Amino acid sequence: MMNSKNKIFVFTKDENLTRDTLKSNDFFDILIARTVEELIKLMKTVPYKAIAVDSLNEYLALDKTVDYIDEQVPILLFHQNCNHLNLEINQLLKNQIWHFNASLIKEKSFMQFYLLHLTMAKYLQIDFCDCYHYNFKTSMEKIEIVAEHLNQYLKLILKEKNKIYDFYVNLILRELLTNAVKHGNQLDPKKNIYIIIYFSKEHQKIGILVKDEGKGFDFNKTFEKCDVDDLRQQQRGLFLIKKLCDKIFNHRNLIAVELYYTE
Amino acid sequence: MKTVVDGKILEFQALDNLVASNLEVQTQAIKESFDKYTDLDTVILNLSNVNEIDSMGVNLVVGLYKQTQAKKMTFKVSNASRSIINLFNLFKLTSYFEVTS
């Protein structure tokens, strides 16, 4: 676990987005900048891990800060008509940019979720080349839709389909979502489930991050209590996650896993 | 889940993936067939239409195996994909019943 908080700058003119509404937590500390000047001032004085901007206009304004932004710092860009597979905007900066649908920023917890995701990504040393995100209200049926989206995503990003790898990635996604729906949100249709699937060609891995709105759990402690009888009729999901995933990270109601592959 | 009876052999043909979202229907179909056909010595689960299976799907297969064992019947899984066979191996289930591709 990290010893100190990471600073994340949120560059936004939306008065509803404040340090309080975005809530700093164990992982990160939010600093708000309303103008480019404020942002530059922060950059000059405070070490930071990432910058989040809540519209294309704010992103374009970052052009003025090119001299200050470290190229290694990822930028979270929330904008309209976002299509994670077909981006048409020109990239001004050399930084990695994660694109998110602007409408989602209206849910403050969603942005907080991404920010947590980002700091966790740093913790896991994740390199992002492509990212798919989705959220849905608790429902077993929606798992099928997400699984199908993932299949399409895998077809796009992997040159040659590796059927067994696809099978395992899909399987792990289903296990994570089933856990979130059944055990996390307790089948409450009012609660949300958030998913991010990211792909790093450089490191040949796929990551899946799932967050529910339940009370959370400790993966390792729960796993240790699992039944190990070959013919058990429950508790196989955690076993699969433990067995098939190369990296597992769990914090309260959020779990992230990575699976490596070879082309 | 389609059922085909040939003599003392009952074959379950899964028509859809064995995953959490649709297991309730499939479990019910299996239960009804077990209640309906009593003079059997073999049960086969045909997975030719199954591309995806999750842990709850595996639980369904284990449950089916246990039911056949309780009635002293032979249980087999047929037409399983390589991925599904690998998954059954992971859970050591292939040491309990025959799984063929």
Overall pLDDT of chain A: 77
Enumerate the spans of chain B where pLDDT stays under 50 for 5 or more consecutive residues. Answer: none
Give the overall silhouette of chain B: globular
Number of DSSP strand runs of chain B: 5
Side-by-side strand order of the widest sheet of chain A: 2-1-3-4-5
Main sheet characteristics of chain A: 5 strands, parallel
**Order of neighbouring strands in the sheet with most strands of chain B:** 1-2-3-4-5
Q: Report how far apart the termini of chain B are.
A: 19 Å
Overall mean pLDDT of chain B: 94
Structural class of chain B: alpha/beta
What is the chain-wise order of helices and strands of chain B?
Answer: EEHEHEHE
Radius of gyration of chain B, in Å, reads 12 Å
Give the second-level CATH assignment, the architecture of chain B: 2-Layer Sandwich
SS summary, helix count of chain B: 3
Query: Which two chains form the greatest contact, residue counts included?
Result: A-B, 25 and 25 residues
Strand content of chain A: 15-25%
CATH class category of chain B? Alpha Beta
Please describe the structure with a list of short key phrases separated by commas or semicolons:
heterodimer, A: 263 residues, alpha/beta, five-stranded parallel sheet, 10 strands, 24% strand, B: 101 residues, Transcription Regulator spoIIAA, five-stranded mixed sheet, 39% helix, globular
